[in-house]
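Batch manifest line 148
LIGAND: DQA
JOB: complex structure
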Amino acid sequence: MTRVLVIHGPNLNLLGVREPDVYGRCTLAQLNERIHEKAQELSIEVRTSQSNPEADIIGAIHGALEWGDGVIINPGAFTHYSYAIRDAIAAIRMPVIEVHISNVHGREEFRRHSVVAPVVYGQIVGFSANSYLLALHAMRDLLEESRR
Ligand code: DQA
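JOB STATUS: finished
ARTIFACT:
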C-alpha cells in the first residue's frame, strides 16, 4: 500500500483556537481524522505528526526515508525562511506536496514567498482543511503514475 507521511509544522497544534477567521474552527485532531478517512478511501496508509521545533520537522522529513513513498507538509511559518527544511525536502528525493490552509498569497507580503516551493512537487493553498485532502488525491495520482 502507498505510504504517505503528513507533517504539520509549528502552531498547527493550535488549530481551532488559533485565528479561527484565518484557519477555521477545525482542530488538529479533527483534521487528522479527516486525513485518515480520506486516506482509507484512497487506499493510502498515512501517518501524521505535528512539531513546533524546526529540528523535529527535519527529523520527520528524514523519517520518510524509512517509512514513506511521499510526504505532504505544511511547514507553517518555516515555509517562508527555513533553508534547512528546504534542504531536508530536497535530500529525500521523493514526491513532496506543500500545503497551506490559508491563501498565503492573499495575506501579508512575507507569506507570499516560499523557500521550499522550488523543491516540492507542487503546492495546494487556500482550501482550508481541504488542502490536505486535495493533496492526498494528488499524491495518490502521482505515485500511481510513477509506477506505470
Ligand atoms: C500556514 C501559513 C503560514 O504563513 C503560517 O505561518 C502558518 C500556517 C497555512 O497553513 O496557511 O502557520 O502554513
